[in-house]
Design goal:
The structure is a single chain. 43% of the residues are buried. This protein is α/β, with parallel strands linked by helices. 33% of the residues lie in helices and 16% in strands. The strands form 3 sheets. A 7-stranded parallel beta sheet has the order 3-2-1-4-5-6-11, with helices on both faces. The C terminus is likely disordered. The protein has 10 helices and 13 strands. The two termini are 35 Å apart. This is NmrA-like domain-containing protein. It comes from Imshaugia aleurites. Keywords: NADP, Oxidoreductase.
Length: 329
């Protein structure tokens, strides 16, 4: 009998990516009405009344997790990767509870094929350790999937993470700005997550690779200048310099350097360009093969979030603190 995943519990539903994934699951007829959320007891987040919330102690105790995971088919885990011990406890509790699939807290760059060398050793150490721990548990009833998306385009553009400042109309271009880089929209990432759970056999125990665009810094700049109807200020740097500065900040415990470290490496190409020479999983998951960059940039510039939110589906509210360590997607 083919494996069917229906009851889904989401961890980290109120983070940068969480609302897009929760919306995609909640609007999918396969999962609608069977989506639940795991939340720390101290959290002030609220969700739509039709979504059940399992509140557990802030330390994520094993026994409380087992209880929350009972009768769940799958877990979508978006807990911060800096909390490695918590991820291991989640995996162990999922196995104990009989969960069939966990989507690991990946949602980023091509970690499986990258050597975790400087300056990204600290950034990706957690992901590597968590994935290896999960692999050591294969055969105990729990399968896994890691989703590789590159950088989040809409969030990264609005936040300045990918090197473009919408307020000052300033672009920081690394090297010539002509190296292709992979980006994915938050909404597309949400749709991909739902599609993975709808195709458990095809996505078991492996990484799934998708993108919305494979584009360059110069092409993004051109789209931004068209959308804003003005010429931007361009500051030039190098991938090596951005990576070095980012690493120096991280070494001081300053996690504001994570963007420079990641994008400095991503804009350098090589193994970071995971679409090069690979057939992506967009078609398998029913996703567009090449979304329109110019249209997306125009929407973001107009302040329209690229998120598919159904009626009353994502009325999530939270008093968000300033993060000392950002969620490393």
């Amino acid at each position: 009998m083919a494996l069917i995943l229906k009851n889904i519990i989401v961890i980290g539903a109120s983070g940068n990516l969480g609302p897009s994934i929760l919306s995609a699951l909640d609007s999918n007829p396969r999962f609608a009405g069977d989506i639940e959320v795991l939340s720390r007891s101290s959290s002030k987040t609220t969700f739509p009344p039709h979504i059940k919330i399992h509140r557990v102690s802030d330390s994520y105790p094993f026994d409380e997790l087992v209880t929350a995971f009972k009768d769940q088919d799958a877990i979508v885990n978006m807990a911060p990767i800096t909390e490695v011990a918590t991820h291991k406890t989640i995996i162990d509790a999922a196995i104990k509870a009989g969960v069939k699939r966990i989507i690991l807290s990946e949602f980023g760059t091509n970690v499986p094929e990258l050597q975790t060398t400087e300056p990204l050793t600290e950034v990706y150490r957690g992901k590597v350790e968590i994935r290896k721990y999960m692999e050591s548990k294969e055969g105990q009833g729990l399968t896994w999937t890691g989703l590789v998306v590159g950088a989040f385009f809409d969030w990264g553009l609005e936040d300045g993470f990918i090197g473009f400042d919408l307020k000052s109309k300033t672009a920081t271009i690394s090297d010539p700005g002509t190296t292709p880089t992979n980006f994915t929209l938050l909404a597309t990432t949400g749709l991909a997550t739902a599609a993975i759970l709808a195709k458990p056999a095809e996505t078991a125990n492996r990484y799934v690779f998708i993108n919305s665009f494979r584009t360059t810094q110069n092409e993004i700049l051109s789209a931004l200048q068209t959308a804003t109807h003005q010429k931007w200020t361009v500051e030039h740097t190098t991938c090596e310099a951005e990576s070095r500065i980012g690493k120096e900040k991280l070494d001081r415990g300053d996690w504001s350097g994570v963007g420079q470290a990641i994008m400095g490496a991503s804009y350098s190409g090589g193994k970071y360009d995971f679409a090069e020479g690979r057939t992506l999983d967009n078609e398998l998951l029913g996703l567009p093969l090449d979304e329109d960059l110019e249209t997306t940039v125009e929407r973001i510039v107009r302040g329209e979030q690229e998120k598919e939110i159904g009626p009353d589906a994502m009325m999530i509210t939270e008093d968000l603190p300033v993060l000392e360590k950002p969620v490393l997607e």
